[in-house]
Structures are given as structure tokens and as C-alpha cells.
Amino acid sequence: MPTMDEKPVALSIRPYRETDFDALISLWRKCSLIVPQNDPAGDVAFCLASADAELFVGQDRDQLAAAVMTGHDGHRGWIYYLAVAPDAQGQGMGRKMVRHAEAWLKDRGVPKVNLMIRDANEKVRNFYQAIGYECEPRIVMARRLIREEQ
């Protein structure tokens, strides 16, 4: 149910198509999701090549207004690249995209979904907490296996 500041939206969610690429990258740029160490074209291609991942887009009329990437390792699901066009935020699109990704994971028997948020991104942390996500006491460790040539 939308909150007082959210308007109901008739968002049409479907799997990504190659013809969405330019609009998707533009959306990710507007949402500041593209960082130097990530190759968005490579991330899209990697997702599409996996049977355990999917990329969904949300259309509001004829505009690509939202997107989410999801995947799993058989035990835990993950949400990546959730984006809602800045001028469409606060209308429930982000929640709908997350719930769609969660349903996709649940249909595959995945019992839990995780996501990572940069520590300084309070706005995104608040969004996820508002839709039922909780911070868990974990340490995320990482090591880059592939680096851009310098």
C-alpha cells in the first residue's frame, strides 16, 4: 500500500531486451550506479549469460523508468543495480521492482535475499529499511580478480 507521499503507479515490469541497453545505461548514470571499477556492459552481458540471474526493467508508459538485476548462488539471492529515474522516485516503483526480484528468487526456492549498500549511501539504506530489510552484523570482504589494464 502506498504511503502518503507515494502515488500508485502502473509500472509494467518485464525482462530486459537488447533494445533497452542505451536507456538502461542512461538510467544507471542518472542514478549514479556506474562507478569506474564496474563495466555496465560487461555486467549486463554476464547477467544475461547466467541461468541463475535476471535483469528486469520497469516501463512507465513508453519510458524505461526502473530496473533491477537479481541472481542467486542456490542459497542466497542478491539484488543489484536497483534504479528508479530520479523524477519518478517516491511513487512506489523501487518497491515494485524489489518485490518482483524477490518473487523471481522465491520461485526458484531461494530462501534469503541480500544486497550491499555503500556505507555513505544513507538514502538507499533508508529506502530498504522502509520496505522491510534489516542491517545484519556482517563483514563484507572482497578481492578483485579482474582489473582494468592500467
Q: What's the mean pLDDT score?
A: 91
Rg from C-alpha positions? 15 Å
Looking across the biggest beta sheet, what order are the strands in?
1-2-3-4-5
- The topology string of helices and strands comes to EHHEEEHEH
| Count of distinct strands | 5
CATH class: Alpha Beta
What does this structure look like?
This protein is α+β, with helices and mostly antiparallel strands and 150 residues long. It has a single domain, classed as 3-Layer(aba) Sandwich (Aminopeptidase). 29% of the residues lie in helices and 23% in strands. The protein contains 4 helices and 5 strands. It has helices at 21-30, 40-49, 93-107, 122-130, and strands at residues 12-15, 53-60, 63-72, 76-84, 112-114. Strands 1-2-3-4-5 form a 5-stranded mixed sheet, sandwiched between helices. The longest helix is centred in the middle third of the chain and has 15 residues, at 93-107. The protein starts with 11 loop residues before the first strand and ends in a 20-residue tail after the last helix. The mean pLDDT is 91.
